[in-house]
Design goal:
By secondary structure, this protein is an alpha/beta fold. The protein is built from 11 helices and 11 strands. Helix 1 crosses helix 6 and helix 7 runs parallel beside helix 11. It comes from Dyadobacter sediminis.
């Protein structure tokens, strides 16, 4: 049995499809799970409830944690420590291997222009501090309790059927409303994005590669150095629109954040847009001979059925 915790998002859906290459026994766990494959086992669970998580993980050989929480620092501080401890305890009891899908928020701001698995951990944001605590709990459980686990990191993501990607929020959705797109702070800076189908494929591959555990892996991401302006222009081309956009500055975030809570949450992450943001996945690519999706083709595939 291979189990996905937080199975309802775009990544969980792709992962469920990819796991069919490795197993016919797939358990989907979330508050209201929905089948992806015809014979998936559905297991409604509150990941903040230790007993429910233990029951959801029981009998699993590999567990994938792809869950997300509301994008709010207070929620993250309150809930992530509970959630990750529940999952660690359940995996230890079930003797299951754990694959944790992570982001890059824990890296020092100075590392953002060239992120690797060895990048220094020194988060400048409150949400980043929470992710660093989660990493510490996992690495501690590996070293002290014998947990078989790995951390799989993604850059910002995009792809077909993805609703909450920065590219959707700031570009595609605005164009569809007949408005200008916007980009945070500086559209001339490089910004890496990971293609969600690549995330799903690579998580399934890692979970079924026993000697990959005990390590941190950057998931396959194009090495092309596209800027925010490049992404806006490509998306506009796919939508047969002019690439009209404006820069969403820090002072705008500060002002509008008084009325729109999510903008207040974005402000502390603005450092990821005032410099190049390049995500190096060469370790994974070399180990598995994997070629990530190019940005041009990834965007074409994203709009193929829209």
């Amino acid at each position: 049995m291979q189990t996905i915790l937080g199975a309802g998002g775009a990544t969980g859906i792709v992962l469920a499809k990819e796991l069919r290459a490795y197993t016919q026994q797939i358990r989907l766990v979330s508050r209201k799970p929905v089948r992806v494959n015809a014979d998936d086992e559905l297991f409604p669970t509150d990941l903040l409830n230790a007993r429910e998580v233990e029951n959801a993980v029981a009998g699993s050989s590999v567990v994938y944690l792809t869950a997300g929480l509301e994008y709010n620092s207070k929620v993250w501080k309150r809930d992530w420590p509970i959630l990750i401890q529940n999952v660690i305890d359940a995996c230890l009891k079930a003797k299951a291997r754990l694959v944790f899908l992570d982001n890059v928020y824990m890296y020092a701001a100075s590392e953002i222009p060239s992120m690797t698995e060895q990048s220094a951990v020194n988060p400048p944001s409150e949400k980043g501090k929470v992710r660093a605590q989660v990493q510490d709990k996992l690495l501690g459980a590996i070293q002290e309790n014998g947990l078989q686990a790995l951390i799989a990191r993604s850059a910002d993501f995009y792809g077909p059927d993805v609703q909450n990607s920065p590219l959707n929020i700031s570009v595609t959705d605005e164009f569809r409303k007949g408005k200008k797109a916007f980009w945070q702070v500086d559209a001339s800076k490089v910004h890496s994005f990971t293609y969600v189908p690549d995330i799903g494929k690579s998580l399934a591959l890692l979970g079924n590669t026993p000697d990959a555990f005990g390590e941190i892996w950057h998931l396959p991401t194009s090495s092309e150095k596209w800027t925010g302006k490049d992404f806006i222009e490509m998306i506009a081309s796919e939508m047969n629109l002019k690439p009209r956009f404006y820069i969403f500055t820090r002072w705008m975030m500060q002002l509008l954040g008084l009325f729109v809570p999510i903008l207040k949450e974005l402000k502390e992450m603005a450092y990821q847009y005032d410099r190049d943001y390049f995500f190096d996945s060469s370790k994974f690519e070399k180990r598995f001979s994997y070629k990530p999706m190019s940005y041009a083709e990834g965007i074409r595939q994203t709009f193929k059925n829209q």
